[in-house]
């Protein structure tokens, strides 16, 4: 049986100008700020053990009526939000 909904992908450009395709995983709110988590889409020939292929967390910035994605401001912010996503993704009860 085929799923009626498939994964959601976005393409972002990193600081070196490379385009990266990301697969949406989850979204959450922390301290009044919206965050989204992604995994890099699998690409043939890429090293699966590369640490850059892990969870990517971006925050949603509202600017001029548009939602933009931005990197996080600090390691402390990243650590706190990462922990929340891990709790959400691996919640044994299935509750978010």
Structural overview:
The chain has 96 residues and is an alpha+beta fold. The chain contains one helix and five strands. Strands 1-2-3-4-5 form a five-stranded antiparallel β-sheet. Strand 4 (56-63) and strand 5 (66-70) form a beta hairpin. The longest helix is centred in the C-terminal third of the chain and has 15 residues, at 75-89. It is globular. The two termini are 26 Å apart.
Short description:
The chain is of the alpha+beta class.
> How many beta strands in the DSSP annotation?
5
* Cα-to-Cα separation, first versus last residue: 26 Å
Q: Ranges with pLDDT <50 over ≥5 residues? A: none
Could you give a short account of the major beta sheet?
5 strands, antiparallel
Helix/strand order: EEEEEH
Mean pLDDT: 84
Global shape: globular
For the CA atoms, what is the radius of gyration?
15 Å
Strand content: 35-45%
């Amino acid at each position: 049986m085929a799923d009626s909904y498939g994964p959601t992908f976005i393409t972002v450009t990193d600081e070196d100008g490379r385009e990266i395709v990301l697969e949406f995983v989850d979204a959450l709110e922390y301290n009044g700020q919206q965050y989204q988590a992604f995994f890099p889409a699998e690409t043939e020939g890429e090293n699966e053990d590369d640490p850059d292929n892990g969870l990517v967390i971006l925050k949603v910035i509202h600017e001029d009526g548009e939602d933009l994605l931005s990197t996080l401001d600090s390691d402390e912010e990243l650590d706190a939000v990462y922990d929340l996503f891990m709790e959400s993704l691996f919640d044994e009860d299935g509750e978010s």
